[in-house]
Amino acid sequence: MAAPKKGRRPTGAQGRPGRALAIILIAMVALTAGMFLTKQTTPRLGIDLAGGTSITLKAKSEPGKPDAINETNMNTAVGIIERRVNGLGVSEAEVQTQGRDHIIVNIPKGTNEKQAREQVGTTAQLYFRPVLAFADGAPAAPQATPSPSASSSGAPKAEGSGKPGTPATPSSSATSQGRVLSEALKAPGATATPSPSASESKKADDNKAPSPAPTPSGIEAAAADLQAKFAALDCTNEAQRAAAGKGAKPEDATLACGKRGDTWGKWILGPAGVAGTDVKDAKGVIDPQRGQWIVTMQFTDKGADKFAKITGELATKQMPQNQFAIVLDGEVVSDPSVSQALTGGNAEISGGFNQQSAQDLGNMLSYGALPLSFSEDSVTTVTAALGGEQLKAGLIAGAIGLILVVIYLLVYYRGLAFIAIVSLLVSAILTYSIMALLGKGIGFALNLPAVCGAIVAIGITADSFIVYFERIRDEIREGRTLRPAVERAWPRARRTILVSDFVSFLAAAVLFIVTVGKVQGFAFTLGLTTLLDVVVVFLFTKPIMTLMARTKFFSSGHPWSGLDPKRLGAKPPLRRSRRTGSGTGSVTAPVDAKEA
User: Fold this and answer.
1) How far apart, in whole angstroms, are the C-alpha atoms of residue 345 and residue 308?
2) Using an 8 Å Cβ cutoff, are 482 and 565 in contact?
């Protein structure tokens, strides 16, 4: 009698369920341990749940630019402020226009809230100006200082301070200073715009005819006047500090104040050589060779030409005229010196930076130039009371939905409901731990729409279990026993689950890309939980189902297992005949087709 052929291993064979379960267990332990090691055991909350600060900025009209406040410039400003605030790690910050000339900035409560408030209020005009003179902030003679150095990437770098440094020796005499100012004012288009006092009112006449070119005596008088205003300027006085350089145009020589370590300094600055809009990118990074923090800059094509020109002119001069000041909203944030023309469109500022000061300066250079100037109209504190009530209502709704899902699973699937509930618990642990870690890692903040996305994910995850359970039941109805039914049902269920989750993830990705603000929180959470659904079904639900199929309770088709063949209306096994023996006679024996 011929030996029966060995049956083929069914598609989607059992494999090694223990290995898959070990992988997901290790992932859960690692994520949970990560929460405690980073001391981030709860997700960061958005402004609607945790409260925060709401800042209203008002766009200001500038002389000679009556049409500057328009929809295009306001939208550009919104985008820059949003990137800048979120660049500080204050994720979920909301920036939107209100009316024609207002921008609302909502900053969630967090560790960087104060820093974000300061930088939002100073996100306006950015210029690179040559330094003509420097002195201590209080009325005193101009002084030269060691300063940070600016160099082309790869070029030799001089030592100095990343912030405006501490004054050292006195600078040139008043006569020499006056000569420097006179030379600066002779530049084409240059004018002297000294700082008005706090009590002076601003006067502008947009229709006034252009004034004639200044005579030599007029230039000397303007230079002398600028020197006198500079000597009298007290940058330790808040009112005078705010008025310094107010109303100065890019082509003006002007005065400016800035922090030098813990003290204030003051500058006379020449006409702007490079605008903030000429900076393509900037960031604070560590120099791998020296292990020091530096700020790298990349300029646009036009900006590279301008920067090469101004650094080439400054490189031939003595301290402090070989420095250029980076001026943000009239305040000097850095004044590096140069020793050679910096060409190629790339440069770096080195010396004396720590991580925060380097990253702050890089952030200012990247996002500091707005098409409009803004004033802080109001600052209000947002409480979390209303959001807390809405969150409570949302959690109650989610709990009710979850209870209904569990009841449905228990009534309809009986013993299989245990596998589904444990799978939901695993998914919840993974989701919670990842959200908590993302709060510290990328600044993710949980808001009300994000909570809604997590609640919707309960249905998506439960749907995947139902698809798999129904495929198993279909196989049992066809007359198969449980173990082969579990393995044969998996390939069909897997395809359906992957297609369904792909559609959900695609919708979440599109929603995240085309929307802004809180809706992105919903899309992000929905996409994250959809990916986790695939992980849980493949690495937990399927392996645990394989193991449960080996137990007597499930394999025997217990009435409470949810897999009772009688309740499912299973068909009797299909049977066929097999010939045995030799010669003219034959004997037939029944064979179960499912065992072949």
Assistant:
1) 8
2) no
